[in-house]
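pipeline/complex-builder :: batch 7 item 3
reading input block
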Amino acid sequence: MTAWARIAGQLGVTIALMAAVAQLSDWPRYHQIAANTAIIRLSFTHGSNRQAECRRRTPEELAKLPPNMRKPLECPRRRGAVYVEFDLDGQTVYRASLPPSGISGDGPARAYQRFVVPAGPHAIAMRMRDTPRTEGFDYVKSSDVVLAADANLVIDFSTDAQGFVIR
Amino acid sequence: MMAPTGDPSKRNSRARSALRATIEYLERGADRVFGPNLNPFAHLGALGFFLFWIVAVSGIYLFIFFDTGVVDAYDSVEAITHAQWFAGGVMRSFHRYASDLMVVVLVVHVAREFALDRYRGARWFSWITGVPIIWMLYASGITGYWLVWDKLAQYVAIVSSELLDWLPIFGEPIARNFLAPGSLSDRFFTLLVFMHIAIPLILLFIMWVHILRISRPKVNPPRALAIIVLLGLVVVSLWKPALSQGPADLSKVPNGVGLDWFYLPLYPLVDLWSRGAVWALLGGFTLMLIILPWLPPFRRARPAVVDLAYCNGCARCVEDCPYEAVRLVPRTDGRPFDQQVQVNASLCVSCGVCVGACPSSTPFRRTTDLKTGIDLPDLPLQTLRERTEEAAAGLSGQERVLIFACAHGAGSGRRQGTVEVPCVAMVPPSLIDYAISRNLADGVVVAGCAERACYNRLGVAWSEQRFARQRNPYLRARVPRERLATIWASPTEKGRFAHELAAFASAVASLPPSQRSPEAPPEDAAVEATAADDTPEELVP
């Protein structure tokens, strides 16, 4: 084998390898959802009220505390769970009691759920309870939406808007 | 007391044997095209470093023109790609394809080291530090894909953040940054840019740590191979430039994206499995890699030991040790030398290369106990000489060929006339002289690993340089070179080994009888000659 033939062979093998690498860098294509489907994402972070009201400490209790920790009010940090339901076309597809986050349970409850649905019209309804009550809901919203193929519909919760927001 | 001659590291599982056979099949193919010196399989680590620098330089160039704001990032990448296709476009392709090649190099490197059983014992450090390299390489690549902010970036960002949110360490779910148009802030995007710079720097640091315990690490491939890689990248970058896949649109699902299957092969799993299952897979794989060096069967030969009575601190063993397990320290025994050598047992793999390098390792000595300056407890020089004599005693006929065979090469096994050693560089050149000048054999074959895949990294190179009288200890000039052959072949090349061995034996048989059986020199003369060549006067018994 001549030197030039060897070099040509080396280049040929190298280019073939790199061409294969280049090809695999964006092929085959990946479809995460089927054709004519869409995604509804139910996602929010929302903190419910604290589980107990603040309480004024008695003088005896304050005296037992170190001087730098003598706050007159004792406010339990832990929040309650947030209960949420999501209906899609009349069927409840998600129902959860979401605990507060954080080691002390004082962070907001979080939800992030993904639903793959056929494209087209859908009736959606969301309900949330963030108070100690056990019956009924504090926030309710329902809506009819039409989803195009590959649409990404987001259902969020906004404290400012005092309820669910569809984006 | 004595360990068996065969190296226990040869006890391989079937899976490992199959993997090794596959890799060696590919290596031999690459050998035919590139030759042993340029074979990419022999330079995987160096190629990894080289590709890193290509990625770094091309990345710096791209960063100059890149807009780090989420609104303008896509447009700036498009401008780089199309408005200056001859420079920025090529650089972008370099950036992507060299990154992909790094994954290829890494996977082959890991598989090859595993197949060759080069991750246990003293090699645990390099193996373990290789694990975070895998993570950092993937983190570098994945964060890079976010920055283009095209549909692929959107897909990668959403799936990555969904995976990360499964871990209970983040306050606000990261995935909420990619919920809908307007969710993603410039500040968060700038954080991603910072991560894509910081993580590769951490990667480089770990790559440096990875080779800390390796003597003479190869961090640069041969120039010709580097040029071939660069030319290949140029051709492929012009033929198939790396392109964006349309701007990200958070109101739509990024469906039908062209995934980079080198960096994102597990992403589709998120749609099939739970996120916890994906993390379990990643964690399990990582854990398996971490504990692999300590899984049975345990294979640890005793490390080399120094005999100060025969060591003058000449540092040849320090120079030749492939693992930096031998170092010089101040003399402790009061003898008139400045230094002595010391073995770091945690780094020593008992390859015996130091024994072959020691000028005291001369078998011509007539002392009852043959000693040398640095020796292997499980296969001391005296035993090596005895085995040489035993193996030679079994030879007869017109073609008495003695074989010094590496335990990891094609010559290993119980063939008649074979002396198996952990590495052929353990055989001092004077032992070859001994075998021929004492008429123990008509010819000597030194059979090591394949040139591209020396199990102990430098055994083949050191042997060749010693025989060529380019490296101490030299093979003495009086040794007739036609009676010495080297065969570098892996265990899967036994056919070629047998063919070359038969050809050498035939050549030896055809040598004139006067040369085939030279008169042995007087022992005193041999000792004197050896001492003059190699051994400090004070150490000659």
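note: The first strand of chain B starts at residue 257 and ends at 258.
queue -> next item
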